[in-house]
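Protein modeling request. Please complete all fields; requests missing the sequence field cannot be processed.
Requester role: graduate student
Desired output: 3D structure, token encoding
Chains: 1
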Amino acid sequence: MIINDKSGSSKTSQQTRHSHGLEQFCSTLEERPGLAILDLAGASQATVTFLTSYGHRLYSDDFLHQLEHTFGHGNFYENQANPALTGPFLDAALDFQPGEFDGALVWDTLQFMSGPLLEAMVKKLHRIMRPGASLLAFFHAEERVETIPTYYYRISDHRTILLVPRGTRKPAQFFNNRSLEKLFHDFESVKFFLTRDHLREVIVRR
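Delivered output (206 residues):
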């Protein structure tokens, strides 16, 4: 599924940053054409153009919007422990066939999920990715921070990301290398890149 770009932001509000994690992720794109890539930042023309230029297929959804729509009425994180909300959400989220994707651009979405819901989503990602597939995720690296900026992530080239601001949000918890290794324990490998702007870029290999 490819949805419309709903960011509605002008080019003047965009920021750019170089990403070693994205560069590592893109190094797998040249191996063979026709890969299926999942993008949880919502579809954008920039990302579509970049990935289809390699001959790949892109499936996109704005996952943070899905979280807000389901759990945002009241206490966002307390709602994530409500079975009446989490049950239907888990039934519908990432509803793909096992081994359907060769790569997943998860961006920062996992740091806004807590407890069993987070663990269930990581298991779903593991299930829908093929062996050898790569996953790219971002986690804020400052331990004592109340809120962090959120963005729409768009790919400009193999190592440059366009960031379109979409406000701030409190993270569910602080993730360090050890907690991330535990979170992705079912995967084959986890690799970290710590950036100057307090971001932990993570490449996970299925």
